[in-house]
Amino acid sequence: MRIAVAGVTGVVGSYVGQVAQQRGHEVVGLARSLGVDLTTGAGLAERLVGVDAVVDVTSIATQRRRAAEAFFGGVTHTLLEAEHGAGVAHHVALSIVGVDRVPAGYYQGKLLQEQVVAAGAVPWSILRATQFHEFAQQVLGFVRLGPLSLVPRMLSQPVAAVEVAQALVDLVEAGPAGRAADLAGPEVHQMADLARRVSRAQGTRRRVVPVRLPGAAGAAMRDGGLLPVADGPRGDLTFDAWLAT
Question: Structural domain tally of the chain?
Answer without folding.
Answer: 1
